[in-house]
Every structure is written in structure tokens, then in C-alpha cells.
Write a structure and sequence with these properties.
Leucine-rich repeat, LRR (right-handed beta-alpha superhelix), about 10% helix, about 20% strand, signal, cell membrane, repeat, Leucine-rich repeat-containing N-terminal plant-type domain-containing protein
Length: about 900
């Protein structure tokens, strides 16, 4: 197999500490006694150096420019990164990791191949993304006389089948490259391998069952690829294996029923696959196993009960998010070495009593959330404590009472009882939990707090985080004001009507969203970092003293009745990342006070009454990702200078008084490179549409963009926006990084639609409706391969509908109505599903689905050729049945077409009806 991308050789990359340390020693010890370098070796290194490009100004992970220090007048064995054999002077090691190397370095006649005795080569943490591979490179690898003693190898690209000839190879490391294709069968020939890491690539196909002869293998990681098929069972019989990771693939099938060997296995990670079947008992009896992770699979059935040998079992078990059901077997409570147990998100059931945990004295973390568990309080005088337990999660466990055993967990730091049916919390429940730092009681809908003990401040002196969201609380619980060290408080989605003051001096995160708070805005302490007050009934102005909150990073006051002007000092608040004041009653100019070096990433001021021009100081917001100014009264020309904001992803100016021509690339060489949501609708823009849509690089080739959300680095805040899509307004509660839209509808744009629009092959929504556009629909729009919604209605477009549009296979909504289009409506793919209203008001159009047929000359292009057998159908019999079927047909058609479900049947009926009408007219 010939490599398609650059192949890079690398030593071992910090994944196993012992091996890394020994490798470092081998490099260092070799340098203690430098020998004179052989002339041919020195010459090869000099040629190799001259072929490299070194640029330490690029964003590398680490910096250690070794090559620049090479002095050709000195002995090459003393050069940084070069290791020579102390007897022969041959170069046997070359460590150029972190050397700021970029570009391509390998060719079929590279001087690197003159280092015939090279055993160790490290080129890690460089950038070879521009490298190209000669077609002869596969033959080079097959030449066993090149690098005959090579022991460490890392590849980038495809793994050639000829790799099986490198019989002395000990370490194969292909981590986090763009490796693709299949794992070659010849890998099973490398019997000296001790380490294989092919993780974080895009390898596909079944993992070949080739490990039976790799008896020296101690580390195997194939995680985070696209491998499918069954598990390679030979990997579970490796006598020296210590680390086995096949997680984050698409592996199916069941676990091996039995294994042999694996006496040294410490880490077994099979998470994030599609494995099914039962969990086998041998998993809990491996003598050295410390980590067992089978989470996020589809493992089913009850876990079989068996007698566990003494002192065996993993220290960390993760079976989270499977389909396990039945009781939790008792042997789990015999795992004396267990430190972490996660059985959450299954369908397990169990009746718990306090004494079940008596042997788990090493347990540190226990997560049984989202199961059908029942806790029975043990009221006896005997108390069983878990001295090392610091995290207990029992969320969504159908619990109605505070678990009795939890009261005695003196070392507990985190307690999660959310999403249960607990109704009463008494102060004495926490009397021994003096170390508790995090308490989550949210979503216990009728929660009330006992006032029998008012001295609660002594009980929870270290409480740092409290969540009481969605508990129907109408006033602060009596213990909250006494929590002087409280930093994180969530009281959202409750019934609180007022707060006279904030009693917490050190609060940093305060969430009071979705309550009934009224009156003026009450400022929190200066320690606040995240302040969420949206969806209340607050009124009045924002006091200027808000700018004394020097640590404030997120300010969300949206969906209130606040009014007045914005304090100018907000633009100078250097800590501020999010400013969300949308859907209030603010007015006046937006202050022109955004200072250089500010950290703002989201500014949402939409749905207010702001007037005047857009403040030019917004160009100082170099980190800005979201700017939403829709639904105001701003009067200005298009702010082309915003194109200099290289991080801007969302720009919404809809429903304002913007006017004039839109020019995207004025004064900025590469404007709007990350823009993915561009909304100028419902303004007074005029002139021609911009021709430089190719500036929108983020709307091109998004196939390699990872799925995520705009601003998802913020845990407590989500960017949202309203977009017009498919004929209606939608509230996007979160904005996908792969969602792209251009909406320039309801303006006064004229002229033609530019051909450059066709370059936006990742564009999903396009709306140019209700303008004055003329000319033809450009055929280049057939290149908009990701388009789902296209609205060009209410313009003055002429000519035919380009047949290239039928290649838009994702197009769900098409609106070309109210134009001056003519000719035959093309058919094929999605165009077979569009209804009459997609074309209404275009008097020159004909063909399906319109009732207007085209002339005979064009009919062949409207309808596909009829099958011969269909043409020979005796239509006389069809007409004889016409009368009988009329009543049924009208009734059935009326019902279907009235309720418009199912739509696919409606469209088929319309199309078939139109064809039948043609044929009937011919018979007449």
C-alpha cells in the first residue's frame, strides 16, 4: 500500500511513564561519551538540516529548537539531539522533537535514509501537515536494509502493508494523526512489538484478529477511531498486556466468554462502543486489574451472581450508561479494594440498607444515579461508615427519604440527591457532614426545610456549592444566609419574589433565573463572577456601580422589565465575557466605550429600543463571537469594519434601520473568516448584493469541523438566537458550530444574485426573499450541497429554474413564488416533493406540480420515460372503474389533502393525478 500523506518517525510519546523515563536515560547516557562523527554521517545530517523549515513563531505545543544550534565545524555527535555509537561513530539516535519543524521533509532520496544504523528517531510535536509522500515510499519501507535496527516508529498517513517487514520494531505509535484506511494484517508479523498506539485517528473497518503472536505486547490502544465489527478476541489472550484500550469506536458483538493469561492486565477500557450481551464474571477476577471501563455501550441483562475470590476485583469500575437491569449483585459489596464505582444510567434495582456497605471501607466515589433504587433507612444503633467516601451521587433514584447511611459520612465532600421525591430536609441530617462542600437537592419539587435547628452554621461550615433549582421554594431556606463560605448558589426555577440583600460575602456564582423577583436590581457582592438574573420581573435601571464588580465575567439580565440607558463603564469592564441584556426596555445610544483589550465574546442587546449609529468602538472587541442587535431602532450604514473581528461567528442586525449598500471586504483583506450566521433581514439596505461571499470561509467545507456549540466553553451560559428558517422563526437555544445561514430578506436589494454564492458549499439556509432582485437564478447555486432551505420569493427574477438545483439532496423547503420565472419546472430528487406554493405567482412556469402543462415539445423533459409495460396498460379498464372509484377517491382525497398528512402521500397523489390527467386528455 502506498502512503497518501506524510510518514513521520517518532519515539514514544509520554503515555507510559516508566518506558518514557528509560528512553530518556538511553538518550542522555549516549551523550556522556561523544565520539567523532563519521564524515558520511555528518554530511547526511547537514543535508537533512538544509531540507527542513524551522519556524518557532508557529503555534507548536512545545519549543526546543535543536537544529539551529548545529555547528557544522563541530563533531556532529555533540550536536543537540544526535546520539552516536560510542565505538563506531555511527548515528544511532536522532531526537528532533519540539523543534519547530514544519512543511515536508521526506523524499525518496532523502539523506535521512543514509543513516543506516539509526535505531531511534523522534520527530514528535512538529508540523508536517504540508508533507507529500513519494510513490516509492512503500518500497522504501520494504527495504529491510534501510533502518535494519529501527525499534521505534510513528506514522502519519496510511499504514502500509509493508510495515510487516520491520521485524525489529518494538514501538508503533500513530497517535492523533489523520491516519485512515484499514489496519494491515501484516502488523501481526511484528513479534517484537511491546507498544502499539493507533488512537485518535480515522481508521475504519474491522480490527483484524492478529495479536496471537504478539506475545511481548504490553500496551495496545486503538481508541477513538471508526473501527467496527466484533472485538479481536486474540487481544484478550496476551500474556504481557498491561494496558488495553479499544474505546470510542463502533465495535459490536459480545465480550469474550473466557480468557487466558491477562494476569498483568491493569487497565481494560472498552467504553463508547456498541457492545451488547452480558457482562462476564472473569472481568472481576483478573488479579492485577485496577480499571474496568465498559461505560456507554449497550450491555444488557442482569449481572450474574458468583462467589468472588478473596482480595480480587478492580479498584475502579465504570458501567455507566448501559442497559443493565435486575438487582445489583451482592459481590459488588465484597470488593474490598474498590475505590470508585459508577453504575449510573442503567435500569438496576436494589433494596439498600446501611450494612451493605460495611466492607467497602476503601470506597471514595459512588455513583448510582438514574436507576430504580430503593433505600431503606437502618434505624439500629449500629452505624456503618465509609471513612474514605468523598463523593456520593444518587440522582434520579426514586428516593423519597434522605438516606440514613449518608448521615454518617463524615468525610463526604459531594452529595447529589437531585431529581428525587424528597420532601423534607431537616437540619440534623447534616450534623456529621462538617466537610461537605457541594450539595445538590435540585428538582425535588415539593422540598421544604425543617426549622428545628437554627444553629446550622456550625453544621455546614465548609459548604461551597448549593443547588436548589426547581424545588418550588418561595423563600430562602433558613440555613442559607449563615453559609459565609458559599461561592456557588443555584436557586433558579423557583417561586422567589424578593431578596432584600445578599448575605454571602464570597459568592462567585449566583443563579436566580426564572423566579418571580420584582423591584429594582440588587447588586451582589464584589466577589461575583457569574450573575444570572434572566426571566424575572425586575424593573428600573442598571446602577453604574455595577462596574465595581471587577471579577464579573458573565452578566445575564435578559427577559426582564429593565429600562434606561446602559452604563458606559460596562465597555471598560475588562473581566466581562458575556453581556446579555436582550428583551428588556433599554433605550438611547449604545455607549461607544468598548476599550481595547476587552474580553467580550458575546454581546446580546436585541429586542430593546436602542437608537443612533452603531458604536465604532465595537471594533476593539477582538474576541467577539456573537453580536446580536436585532429588533432595535439603530440607524446606520452597514458596519463593514466588523469584518476585522476574526472570531465573529454570529452577526444579527435584523429589524433595524440600517441602510445603504452592503460591502463585505472594504478595508479588510480577510473579513468575517469565521462568520456562520449572517442576518441583515428587515432593514433598508439597497444596491446590489455583495459579490464577495467567498469571504465567508466558515461556510465552506465544514466536513472536518467538530460538532459543538458556539461559546460552549462557558458551563453556565448558552448563546441563543432567533432565525428565520423554512418559512418560520425558530429560537435556537444553542447554536451549533456547523449551522450556517444567510438571511438578507425584506430589504431593497436589486441587481442579480452573484455567482460567488455557489462557493458556500456548507451553507444550510439562504433567504433573499422580499427584495428587488432581477436577472436569472445562477446555476452555481447547484453547488450549495448542504442547503436545506432556499427562499428567493417576492423578487423580479426571470428565466428558467436551473436544473442544477435538483442536485441539492438536502433541500427541504423551496420558495420561488412571486417572481417572473418561466419554463419547465425541473424534476428529480427533492424537486419531486415540492408543492404548488413553492412556485405560485410565476405565470410562465409549467409542469409538475402545477396544473399548467407544458407544450408537447417540452413534455419529454418534464416527465421521465414511461416503462413499456405501463404504456401497454389497458386504459379502457381503468376508465370503466372510474365511476366506481370516484366516490371513494374523492372522500379519501378530501381527508388526506385536508389534514395534509402524510405529506409524502399527498405529493405522490398530486403527481400521479397530473399524469393521469395528461393521459386522459390524450384519449379524448
Amino acid at each position: 500500500m502506498i502512503l497518501k500523506q506524510f510518514v513521520v518517525l517518532i519515539l514514544f510519546l509520554f503515555l507510559h511513564l516508566q518506558f518514557h523515563c528509560s528512553l530518556s536515560l538511553s538518550f542522555n547516557s549516549s551523550n556522556t561519551s561523544p565520539q567523532l562523527c563519521r564524515p558520511d554521517q555528518s554530511s547526511a545530517l547537514v543535508q537533512f538540516k538544509n531540507s527542513l523549515s524551522v519556524n518557532c513563531s508557529a503555534p507548536f505545543l512545545c519549543y526546543d529548537d535543536k537544529i539551529s544550534s548545529w555547528n557544522e565545524s563541530m563533531n556532529c555527535c555533540s550536536w543537540d539531539g544526535v546520539i552516536c555509537d560510542t565505538k563506531t561513530g555511527y548515528v544511532i539516535g536522532l531526537d528532533l522533537s519540539c523543534s519547530c519543524i514544519s512543511g515536508g521533509i521526506i523524499s525518496s532520496n532523502s539523506s535521512l535514509f543514509h543513516l543506516r544504523y539509526l535505531r531511534k528517531l523522534n520527530l514528535a510535536y512538529n508540523d508536517f501537515s504540508l508533507s507529500s509522500i513519494p510513490s516509492e515510499f512503500g518500497e522504501i519501507l520494504e527495504d529491510v536494509f534501510r533502518f535494519p535496527r529501527l525499534q521505534k516508529l510513528v506514522l502519519e498517513g496510511e499504514v502500509p502493508d509493508s510495515i510487516g517487514n520491520l521485524r525489529s520494531l518494538e514501538v508503533l505509535h500513530i497517535h492523533d494523526c489523520k491516519l485512515n484506511g484499514l489496519i494491515p494484517l501484516s502488523l501481526g508479523n511484528l513479534t517484537e512489538l511491546t507498544f502499539i498506539d493507533l488512537s485518535n485517528n480515522v481508521l475504519e473497518g474491522q480490527i483484524p484478529d492478529i495479536f496471537i503472536n504478539l506475545t511481548k505486547l504490553s500496551y495496545l490502544s486503538l481508541s477513538s477511531n471508526r473501527s467496527s465489527g466484533n472485538l479481536p478476541f486474540s487481544a484478550f489472550n496476551l500474556p504481557q498486556i498491561v494496558y488495553l484500550d479499544l474505546s470510542a469506536n463502533k465495535l459490536t458483538g459480545h465480550l469474550p466468554f473466557q480468557v487466558r493469561g491477562l494476569s498483568l492486565l491493569e487497565f481494560l477500557i472498552l467504553a463508547d462502543n456498541i457492545l451488547n450481551g452480558k457482562i462476564q464474571s472473569w472481568l472481576f477476577t483478573l488479579p492485577s486489574l485496577t480499571l474496568l471501563d465498559l461505560s456507554h455501550n449497550m450491555l444488557t441483562g442482569p449481572i450474574d451472581q458468583f462467589e468472588l475470590p478473596v482480595s480480587l476485583g478492580p479498584t475502579h469500575i465504570n458501567l455507566r450508561n448501559n442497559k443493565l437491569h435486575g438487582p445489583i449483585p451482592s459481590f459488588f459489596f465484597q470488593l474490598v479494594n474498590l475505590t470508585r464505582l459508577d453504575l449510573s444510567s442503567n435500569k438496576l434495582s436494589c433494596i439498600f440498607e446501611s450494612d451493605k456497605f460495611v466492607k467497602l471501607y476503601n470506597l471514595e466515589e459512588l455513583d448510582l444515579s438514574d436507576n430504580a433504587l430503593l433505600f431503606l433507612n437502618n434505624r439500629s444503633n449500629t452505624k456503618y461508615t465509609l471513612p474514605n467516601l468523598f463523593s456520593l451521587k444518587l440522582s434520579s433514584c426514586n428516593i423519597s427519604d434522605f438516606p440514613d447511611f449518608a448521615r454518617d459520612l463524615e468525610g463526604l465532600l459531594e452529595l447529589d440527591l437531585s431529581h428525587n421525591k424528597i420532601t423534607v430536609i431537616e437540619a440534623d441530617m447534616f450534623s456529621k457532614l462538617k466537610n461537605l462542600a457541594s450539595l445538590d437537592l435540585s428538582h425535588n419539587n415539593q422540598l421544604s426545610f425543617s426549622t428545628t435547628n437554627n444553629n446550622v452554621s456550625l453544621v455546614l461550615p465548609n459548604l461551597f456549592s448549593v443547588s436548589l433549582s426547581s424545588c418550588n421554594i418561595s423563600k430562602l431556606p433558613n440555613f442559607l444566609p449563615s453559609l459565609e463560605n458559599l461561592f456557588d448558589l443555584d436557586l433558579s426555577n423557583n417561586l422567589l419574589t424578593s431578596l432584600e440583600y445578599y448575605p454571602w460575602r464570597n459568592v462567585g456564582f449566583l443563579n436566580l433565573r426564572s423566579n418571580l423577583l420584582r423591584g429594582p436590581l440588587l447588586l451582589p457582592p464584589n466577589s461575583i463572577e457569574v450573575w444570572l438574573m434572566s426571566d424575572n420581573k425586575l424593573s428600573g435601571e442598571i446602577p453604574s456601580s455595577v462596574c465595581n464588580l471587577s471579577s464579573l465575567g458573565i452578566l445575564d439580565l435578559s427577559d426582564n422589565n429593565l429600562r434606561g440607558t446602559i452604563p458606559k463603564c460596562l465597555g471598560a469592564l475588562n473581566s466581562l465575557n458575556i453581556l446579555d441584556l436582550q428583551r428588556n426596555e433599554f433605550y438611547g445610544d449604545i455607549p461607544d466605550s468598548f476599550v481595547e483589550g476587552n474580553m467580550l465574546q458575546t454581546i446580546s442587546l436585541n429586542d430593546n429600543g436602542f437608537v443612533g449609529p452603531l458604536p465604532t468602538s465595537l471594533r476593539n472587541c477582538s474576541q467577539l463571537e456573537v453580536l446580536n442587535l436585532g429588533h432595535n431602532k439603530i440607524n446606520d450604514s452597514f458596519p463593514h469594519w466588523l469584518g476585522a473581528l476574526q472570531q465573529l461567528q454570529v452577526l444579527v442586525l435584523r429589524y433595524n434601520g440600517f441602510h445603504g449598500q452592503v460591502v463585505l471586504d472594504y478595508e479588510t483583506p480577510s473579513p468575517f473568516p469565521k462568520l456562520q450566521l449572517f442576518d441583515l433581514s428587515h432593514n433598508g439596505f439597497s444596491g446590489s448584493l455583495p459579490t464577495s461571499f467567498h469571504c465567508f470561509k466558515a461556510m465552506m467545507d465544514l466536513d472536518n469541523v467538530g460538532m459543538g456549540y458556539v461559546g460552549d466553553r462557558f458551563v453556565h451560559y448558552r448563546d441563543s438566537v432567533v432565525v428565520a428558517m423554512k418559512g418560520a422563526d425558530f429560537q435556537l437555544e444553542r447554536i451549533l458550530t456547523t449551522f450556517t445561514t444567510i438571511d438578507m430578506s425584506s430589504n431593497q436589494f436589486g441587481g442579480e444574485i452573484p455567482q460567488t454564492l455557489g462557493k458556500l458549499n456548507s451553507l444550510q439556509v439562504l433567504n433573499f426573499s422580499h427584495n428587488r432582485l432581477t436577472g436569472y437564478i445562477p446555476s452555481s447555486m447547484g453547488n450549495l450541497a448542504s442547503l436545506e432551505s432556499l427562499d428567493l420569493s417576492s423578487n423580479k427574477l426571470v428565466g428558467k429554474i436551473p436544473p442544477q438545483l435538483t442536485s441539492l439532496r438536502f433541500l427541504e423547503v423551496l420558495n420561488l413564488s412571486q417572481n417572473q420565472l418561466s419554463g419547465v419546472i425541473p424534476l428529480g430528487n427533492q424537486f419531486d416533493t415540492f408543492r404548488n406554493d413553492s412556485y405560485g405567482g410565476n405565470l410562465g412556469l409549467c409542469g409538475f406540480p402545477l396544473s399548467k402543462s407544458c407544450n408537447n415539445k417540452n413534455e419529454a423533459s418534464i416527465f421521465p420515460e414511461e416503462d413499456d409495460s405501463a404504456a401497454a396498460f389497458p386504459w379502457t379498464f381503468a376508465l370503466m372503474g372510474y365511476g366506481c372509484g370516484l366516490v371513494f377517491g374523492l372522500s379519501f382525497g378530501y381527508i388526506i389533502l385536508t389534514i395534509r398528512k402524510p405529506e409524502w402521500l399527498v405529493r405522490k397523489v398530486e403527481k400521479a393525478g397530473f399524469k393521469l390527467k395528461k393521459i386522459y386528455m390524450k384519449i379524448e
